[in-house]
């Protein structure tokens, strides 16, 4: 079992940066793949980034590639999403998710555990 809690969201201006954190509890955090998803008002949840258990493999959505960086610190049971050069279209609720099977995928149904989400709002 994995429990996830996101934090770090807020209201920022276009061009600003934020770092989201996802604190995990459970016995198997170090061996699970982790992902970030986001959901804008009126839209379906979309993939943002994923990272494998060791942190050696990362996968990004094209819309955030070059601006966002996913990382993890297994000693602290935490995964991060560093978001730079934020745009208004990045606005949404950001969720972290875990896949104990270790798959680094971009489909929400591949993930078994989800956090409650943290709101990111980027103004023009």
Topology summary:
Elements: E1 2-7, E2 10-13, E3 18-26, E4 33-39, E5 46-51, E6 58-60, E7 68-73, E8 78-83, E9 92-99, E10 113-114, E11 118-123
Parallel strand pairs: 2-11
Antiparallel strand pairs: 1-3, 3-8, 4-5, 4-9, 5-6, 7-8, 9-10, 9-11
**Radius of gyration from CA coordinates:** 13 Å
Question: How much of the polypeptide forms β-strand, as a percent range?
Answer: over 45%
- The portion of residues assigned to helices is under 10%
User: What letter string, H or E per element, gives the SSE order?
Assistant: EEEEEEEEEEE
Terminal-residue CA separation: 40 Å
The tally of beta strands, per DSSP, is 11
**Secondary-structure-derived class:** mainly beta
Arithmetic mean of pLDDT: 94
Uncertain ranges: none
Q: What's the overall geometry? A: globular
Q: Main β-sheet, in a few words?
A: 7 strands, mixed
Helix count?
Answer: 0
């Amino acid at each position: 079992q994995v429990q996830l809690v996101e934090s770090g969201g807020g209201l920022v201006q276009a061009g600003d940066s934020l770092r989201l954190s996802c604190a995990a509890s459970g016995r198997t955090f170090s061996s699970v793949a982790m992902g970030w998803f986001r959901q804008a008002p009126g839209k379906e949840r979309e993939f943002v980034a994923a990272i494998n258990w060791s942190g050696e493999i990362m996968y990004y959505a094209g819309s955030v590639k070059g601006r966002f960086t996913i990382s993890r610190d297994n000693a602290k049971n935490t995964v991060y999403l560093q978001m730079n050069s934020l745009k208004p279209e990045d606005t949404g609720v950001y969720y972290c998710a875990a896949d104990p099977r270790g798959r680094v995928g971009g489909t929400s149904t591949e993930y078994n555990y989800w956090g409650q989400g943290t709101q990111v709002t980027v103004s023009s």
